[in-house]
Design brief:
single chain; about 130 residues; alpha+beta; 5-stranded antiparallel β-sheet
Length: about 130
């Protein structure tokens, strides 16, 4: 279960001043996300902050989320309600052809299927993680 999104800047995001990774912060503090750079159509993973920092794209992150937030590398967005986050690649309930491909489309599809307005992430300046249509 989650009521919070997280955004992280990979090394690419830092260089380009973009938020390029997104996922769900679970109620137990772990992070659940799907990432295109891990391989094509790999299901979502649950990781700790320490696990995320071991990934080559995120080795630049400081030891804590709090430090990363202070440095503009991490942020959280509260959702209007708590939702179940699937363990598999998810499609839109009204369009099975719209299968999640990466972190952004995974989050968009989960929010869409739970009737949460996508404006919650569309409005983030510098967001570079999803197709919203």
């Amino acid at each position: 279960m989650s009521d919070t999104l997280f955004l992280v800047r990979s090394w690419w995001g830092v260089d380009n001043k973009k938020w390029d990774h997104i996922g769900f912060l679970l109620s137990n503090g772990k992070m659940k996300d799907m990432s295109g750079h891990r391989g094509e159509y790999k299901p979502p993973e649950i990781n700790s902050w320490e696990d995320l920092r071991r990934d080559d794209a995120f080795k630049h992150l400081p030891e804590t989320k709090e430090e990363a937030e202070e440095q503009g590398l991490y942020r959280e967005i509260k959702l209007p309600k708590e939702i179940e986050v699937p363990n598999e690649i998810v499609c839109r309930v009204d369009d099975p052809e719209r299968k999640a491909e990466n972190c952004g489309t995974f989050v968009v599809n989960v929010l869409y299927n739970n009737e949460i307005d996508l404006g919650i992430i569309k409005s983030v300046p510098g967001i570079s993680v999803a197709k919203f249509d």
